Amino acid sequence: MDTTNLADTLERLIAPVVAGLGLELYGLELVGGEGQLIVRVYIEREGGVTIDDCATVSRHIGLLLDVEDPIPGRYALEVSSPGLERPLFTPAQAASHVGATVEVRLHAPLPDVPGRRNFKGELTGVNGDTMHVAVDGVSYALPFSHVAKCRLRITDWDAVKKGAHS
């Protein structure tokens, strides 16, 4: 199963349903493989997402996927908000979090950084399709096309408790 094509197909099917419910499709992840695939759908809206929003979206998407049947075999559907330690799926999403701590995993090491796939540091900028992450004083240019996963990491939970998200 080609998960990239499946993810694109699912986004095209799901985005209009989510928008029709007054929410935005933030992104989706496919985890696992055939027979045990998990489809994680992240939704958001100004002011936040409720559990009822997630349940409603899940019902609508479930019905759509039953009719369209784009997924071979069994799967589990999970719908949630992206949360504070949210995944970053696009350069635009990353650009809105410059200055934050991120964890990045690449599909494979880059030629100029052999043997290294994982980076945790400050997101210092986004230029086009490339994010710049500073790790221990060294800046790395990481093309989004090589990113398997990118997620915000909270480093100051006390600030979060006081209402400052970073």
From TrEMBL:
Transmembrane segments: none annotated. It holds the Pfam family RimP_N. Keywords: Cytoplasm, Ribosome biogenesis. It is found in: Cytoplasm. InterPro entries: Ribosome_maturation_RimP, RimP_C, RimP_C_sf, RimP_N, RimP_N_sf. Coiled coil: none annotated. GO terms for biological process: ribosomal small subunit assembly; translation. This is Ribosome maturation factor RimP. The gene is rimP.
